[in-house]
Amino acid sequence: MFRYLRVRRQPERVVPDLGGLSADWLSRSPGVPITLRQINGLPENAKKRAYRALIPPGLLARFGINPITWDGPEEVQRVMLVAKPGTSKVAIAVRAAVDDPDELLRIELEDTSLNGINLNLLVLNDPDSPRFPTDYDKEGKPTQFGTVRRNSAAEEEAMRVGLAPAQVRQGLRASSLVLQHLESFLVVCGHAAYFLEPLTYVSSWVLERRGFAYVRGHKLMDDIHREFQPAGRLYQALDGSTPFRQPDQWRSVRGRAWAVHDGILEVLGAHWDGLRMVKQVGRQAGVETFPGAVY
After folding, report:
1. Least packed by Cβ within 10 Å: which of 59, 73, 101, 255?
2. 227-266 burial string, b = 16+ CB within 10 Å, else e?
3. Mean pLDDT per segment of 10 residues, for the chain of length 295 residues?
């Protein structure tokens, strides 16, 4: 599983109700944005037609899911759409099998207060890969991806096989494709950019490679890179005191990410929070806060 984003704790006030979609409304300037609230006000089948564009057909076909009907071979829905009338959010969840514990894809979008779009959640899981229960602690309580509580034993096992913080399985290596489809959908809706909040250091690095820039947090990323250099404060804090603070972890994105997840930023008087990123559709920002990085 790869979760890019941090769930917003306080919902934003959304744009005023622009009224329902109609042929007359759509005949106006194509530059006027269409909101998710407007799409959610459409009949169910019309909503499905609109939101179908968010999911790469090849990804669905790979798991035997009809990209038009969203049915699996057993003619049971494998794709769930939640887009309630009167709301400004949409969630789409895809499972490789009806009884799978994890979604192979989940995407959640929301209108912003300035006629924009937030990407609140993106999950990509390889359902055929081993699962590590980092999402629950030893008492069975949800960890909220390690942000509220942790299962250190499961995290250590996940780290040893090459997973990053907040992953329970390997990813699908399809984030670039999914984001391309998202951008195509946003272009149709008249949106020039979208925003998100990265959950982990790995998330930020991947999103930089996908063309995102920072609204907030660029300085923190630069500070992290500087202080992970030999003689830096983060470098010195890789003292082997926990499995997630081994001396060579500064060399890789994943190694740094586990140390950050383990709270190493405390030596800088900082913590991983408040970062916000933006992507202009069709453009690459060219941001690189870890030059020459090895994952």
Report:
1. 73
2. bbeeebebbebbeeeeebbbeebbeebbbbbbbbbbebbe
3. 46 52 62 91 95 97 96 94 97 93 96 92 95 93 89 96 95 95 96 96 97 98 98 98 98 98 98 96 97 96
The answer to whether residues 281 and 186 touch, using CB atoms and an 8 Å cutoff, is yes
For residue 199, give the nearest of 287, 90, 104, 120 by alpha carbon: 120
Give phi and psi for 5, each to the nearest 5: -125, 155
Residue of 196, 163, 169 lying closest to 182 (CA atoms): 196
158 neighbors 133 (Cβ within 8 angstroms): no
With 0-12 CB in 10 A as exposed, 13-18 as middle and 19+ as buried, what is 163? buried
pLDDT of residue 292: 95
Whether the Cβ atoms of residue 112 and residue 118 lie closer than 8 Å to each other: yes
166 closest CA partner among 144, 140, 137: 144
Q: Which of 261, 200, 212 is nearest to 5 (CA)?
A: 200
Q: Do residues 256 and 237 lie in contact, with contact meaning Cβ atoms separated by under 8 Å?
A: no
Predicted TM-score of the model (pTM): 0.89
